[in-house]
Amino acid sequence: MADIQIVQEHKLSPEGARAAAQQVADKVAAEFGMQCHWDGDVLRFERSGVEGALTLGEQRAALRIKLGMLMSAFRPMIEEKVADKMRRVFTAA
What we know:
By secondary structure, this protein is an alpha+beta fold. It has helices at residues 14-32, 75-91; strands at residues 2-9, 35-39, 42-47, 50-56, 60-67. The protein has a five-stranded antiparallel sheet with strand order 1-5-4-3-2, covered by helices on one side. The model has no long low-confidence stretch (mean pLDDT 90). This is Polyhydroxyalkanoic acid system family protein. It comes from Massilia suwonensis. InterPro entries: PHA_gran_rgn (IPR013433).
């Protein structure tokens, strides 16, 4: 299994951070066919071969993705796209 971990600092309000996280989730869900749901301040997502969580903190968002063997071949592309989306939505103010 391949792991992706991305931490993005932010200066958003809790509501703004949640909206930004939802934007990331919507993009991930659309591109990779994932199901997403909130569990408190943690946005969990999964599909066959992929699972992860985006945890919101006061000044940072921490994303962890576990890729199964087949999806691990796409790790660089997935990491680049998700990191770019997180950077754009969490630093927009």
